Each structure stands twice: as C-alpha cells, then as structure tokens.
Amino acid sequence: VKLEKAVRLAPSRATYHIVLAREYFQRFIAEAAKPAPDLQVATGMVALAVEESKKSIEKSPNWAVAYEMAGVVYREIQGTAQGALEWAMKSFEDALKLEPKNPVVLTELGKLRLLTQENEKARELFNKAIALKQDYIDAQLQIAFLDDKEGKAQEAQGRLENLVRLSPFSVEAHFQLGRVYYNAKDYDKAVEQFQTALTIFPNHSNSLYSLGLVYDRKGDKQKRG
C-alpha cells in the first residue's frame, strides 16, 4: 500500500515503479507456490508487475535496471503467456546495450538462449560474464549445466569442484556437484556434497531428496527414511 501511494505521489520516479513491480512479482511467486494458488490473484499480480515495469522504462528509457526488471517478469511467465519469451529476450538485450559489461544481464540472456536451443550463443554469453566476474556463481553453474547436458561430465565436474572451492557457502554449487557425483555413481562424494548443502541450508529440499536417493542406492533404508 505504501509503495502504491509513493508511485501516485511521484509517478515520474522510475525507481518507485521498479520497486513496485518487484513487489507485485514477489506476490505472484508466493501465490504460485501455494498448494492451491488463486489463479485470478496470480494473473493480477503478473499484469501489475508488467504494467509497472513498462512504466519504469517509459520514465527512464536509458536505465538498464528498468529493462532488467521487465526481463525477469517476462522470463518467469514465458511458459504461460504467448510472446513472453521474446519480450524477455528483448528486454535483456536492451539492458545489455546500456550496460554491455553487466555479468547478471549477460547470464540472464544466456539462460534464455538455452531455452531456444542456442547453446553456443548461451555459452558465449556465460563466458563473457565469467570474464567480467570470475567468481560469478550463476554463470559458472550455467556452463556446468551446459557441459553436463552435452555429455561433458568431466568438464562439468571439474568446474563445479573449482566453484565450491571459490564459493564454499554456495548451496547450489554443492548440490550440483553432488548431483554430478551421483550420476557418476560416486555415492560417498555425493553424500558429502548434499550434507554440506544441508549444513548451510537445512531445508534445501533438492539436497534432502537427493540424499534419500543416494541412501536408497546404497541400501541404507534407515537413513533413507
């Protein structure tokens, strides 16, 4: 309510529109995560997030963060809204024109390229992001996913092993490395990585589930339960 009031009082402030768009978007995510989401509420939050994103771009057309916020919203609804994937891609491309050395935008655009099966273009974008920020976890993870997808298991494993050394508190890095070890049937190492992820974040559902799978493979029914 306060954010909406701020926008009414100062409608020319792009920052207010961006923050309000982010709030509507978070409301959408929260509603969509419910066991029985209210589709009318979720749809309404998406529409409001899109509207505020467009207004922020209108007010500050040379501000990359406005396009970035729009790209995030469009990306998340691309499975349900026709044309959203193209809108997301254009939004991130516009952001990149304004900030060509932004590793976050490069990585987000790379993720969209993966969705359109443009793997080499995606890899190029991820590598550019890493060249700008060596320890950028998201870009490193995306290349590891891509290596694994293309059957380059050793490359993916090596990258993830290096990543957990660089970022020892990254839950996702430990989980993904555990997943690679699991696929390679190196169950003891997989357990170690899943347990490390759970030490950092005890409610990490993917690690809990994967740990159960490992114990099942090892025949340890007591730990599996």
Q: What is the compact description of this entry?
A:
This protein is mainly α and 225 residues long. The protein is built from 13 helices and no strands.
Keywords:
225 residues, mainly alpha, 77% helix, globular
Task: Give an account of the 3D structure.
Helices cover about 75% and strands about 0% of the residues. The chain contains 13 helices and no strands.
* SS strand fraction: under 5%
Shape: globular
Structural class: mainly alpha
Query: How is the biggest beta sheet arranged?
Result: none
Distance between the termini: 45 Å
Helix content: over 70%
Q: What's the overall average pLDDT, rounded?
A: 91
Uncertain regions spanning at least 5 consecutive residues: none
The number of strands is 0
| Tally of DSSP helical segments | 13
Topology:
Elements: H1 2-9, H2 14-32, H3 39-59, H4 64-76, H5 84-98, H6 103-115, H7 119-132, H8 137-149, H9 153-166, H10 171-183, H11 187-200, H12 205-217, H13 221-224
Helix pairs in contact: 1-2, 2-3, 2-4, 3-4, 4-5, 5-6, 6-7, 7-8, 8-9, 9-10, 10-11, 10-12, 11-12
